[in-house]
Structure formats: C-alpha cells, structure tokens
Amino acid sequence: MSLLRPYKRFGDKKNSPYFEEYLTKIYDWRDSVGLVDMVQEMHSIVVEVDESDRHAYIEELMIMTPYHYVKSFENKTFIYSLLEIGEKNPGFVIRSRKNHSDSRFISMNMLSPAAMTKPYTRYIGEVFRVSDIDELQKTLSGAGVEFTDEDQVSGGEVKFIRTVPSQYTWNTIAYIQYPKGKRQYYLEQNPEHIEDEAWIEKLQGIKNLQNELGIGDLIQPIDHLATRVLHQDREHAILELLKTTSYHYWGSYDIADQNSSTNVTRNSNKFEEYRSPAKVFTAANTPHYVDNIVHLPSPTEAFVRNYGKRMHHIAYSVADNTPGQDVDNVDKVVDALKNHDVEFLLKVIGSSEEGLKQIFSRTSKFSFLITEYVQRFNGFQGFFTKKNVAFLTKAAGEDSVLKSEGRVGEGDLSD
Which fold has domain 213-407? Predict the structure, then answer.
C-alpha cells in the first residue's frame, strides 16, 4: 500500500470545516482499500466534437499542440481519432457521434445558451490506467460510484469502464486495464476507419510547418487540465475527484479581484506532470445572484452559466530557454502561431523574474476549449502567480461573453 500522506498543502484560500473533515475521511477510506495503488497515471483524455468539425479540430491541434495523428476507428456509435505524443504521455481521443439521438450529453449542453449551439460538443473526461479493474469497479460501486455501459469493454485483453457524468463538473472518469507493454486503447477493438489520404497528407504538412516555424520542439505535453464549476460545487468537485482517482489536494489560491479561486489537485503516485497532468478547478467566490451586492466581476460564474459546467482549458508546457537566449520560448511559440492566424486573448503575461509566463488562446470554435501555454523559469514549481491568473481569468471571461453574444462559429483556421 502506498503511504504518501501527509500531502503538502499550498495556497491561501480557506475551505469549509466540511471539506477539511471529509478530505481526511476520503484519504482514510482510499488508503484502507488501496485505491492509490490501483489507479495509476492518466492514460488519455477524450473530447467529443461534431463529425463536421472533427477534421478541422485535429488540424487545429496539429499546429497548436505536440500531438500527432495516429489513426481512426469506428463502431456503431462513434468515429474515433487517436492522437499521441509518446508512450509516457496521455493519449488524445477525439470522438464524433454517428447518431445524435444516442447522446446523453445533449441534455447538459442544451441547458446553456452558448453550449446549445453545438449540443454534441464537449470535453468528456480522463481515462486512468489501473492495475485491477474488476477490483476497482467492485470497490467504487460499493462506495456509491455509478458507471455507464455506453462504451464499457470487458472482453479480451483490454478492459474499460466509465463513470456517469459528475453532477458537479459534468465530466467523467474512466479506467482502463491492459497487459504490460505497449499502451493499448479500448477503441482498438473496433474496425479501422478509412480516412482520405489527401487529408492525412495535409496533417503531415501541418506538422512539418510547425517544425519549420521552430516551435515543434518547444510545445511540450499537457501541463494541467482546468474545469470551471459553480461556486457551490467547488469543494464537492474536488472531493469527488479524490474519491475516484489517486490524485490529492495540492491547494487553493484566492483571486479576490476576479471573485474566484483556483484549486489544484495532483497525482499522488509521484508521476511527472507530463505523464499525469494536474487537474485544476476554478470557481467563483460568490454565486451569481449576489453580483449586485458584492460589486465584483464574476467571469468564472458567467462562463459556467453560458457554457455549462465543463473543461475550460488544456495547458501545455513550453520548453526551457537555452543559455543566452534573448527571446523566451513562449513568446516564440505565440508569435509564430499569431502569424498563422491563431488568435490569443491577450499578450503573454508574467516574466522570467516572476518565475512564470502564460497566455490563453481564444476559445476553439470546434471544441469550446481554450489552449494555454505556460513556461516556468528558475525551478518555479507552481501553476500560476496570482497576478497572472487574475489577468487570464478576466480575459477568458470577456471571451466567453463575446462567444455567447454570437461569435461562435466565426472564422476557420483551416481556411
């Protein structure tokens, strides 16, 4: 059994007595059942987009991320496209639904004015590699965790299960088990989907362009995944994640001038971030109905009301500078992408002296996800500075308001 407690706590935001009580109780429970040993690193992430957007979204990822297209599969419900970086980084699975009437996610998207413009588009959740999926399912089911049978795989060498969407985040957690050796995917049991050769060549051309721009080696694997939730769901979302994974609570920071907090969880099995990225939750400090009383901005609450509870952004690390370099790598990445029609919400914020530089892209019209780039300096270990995150939160809030007022669907990176 892994005995990794106590977990070092960071941050300045105070949690409720309920949170602190049940945080300890959840740690005690999962230690007693060996959950941290059962749930290992993040295996992959899953995003669902419209089939009409699938190719364009993959093209967008080819220029903006370190992922490479591998292949596509299909079954009676989905067409899947698999993207990878390497064996030690989470895979990226993009799926498109063949029959819209089968979707359980449409009911969530239809509750939100911006999300309902693409009701079959959303971040689905993460998949974690586990050592004993049958024991894990027995343990979690016995503790009240519900699973869906929509894409469950129980036969052959690969076993796969997924939870029903969380009522606090509307994301899911999935688990996969396969024999030791090369990483496998549940979708590989499905027949291969034939893609047009001209499109495959186009993807390779985009990756070649990324390298010609000198940014192919600068954009590193996923650094963290950030979900936005409502004020009242913050503590429950964190505790629920800890109950269903091997992650622990790293800490929370209060961003007072943006009326929000940033809450970080990290893998307890000591995997490097590039193997199992941190999961971050952002929530308002006060609910929307008291905005007229507190007289503070509420960009996080506005995002959730417009788009629903969902993943907000995926952050990618940027490589360290080489000695004597006069332009930071994150600035190189951003300048190169701007010259190829990628839009950003603001200029790069932070500095090497502060230890961190960050920037948000504009929201993808294909996935509704923002891409963040983050470069750390001088051994900086955190995910943000309070000044940086205040700027980022404000900018993202303004972008989500614009989207809800009609910007969704404008422009096309692939044009």
Answer: 2,3-Dihydroxybiphenyl 1,2-Dioxygenase; domain 1 (3.10.180)
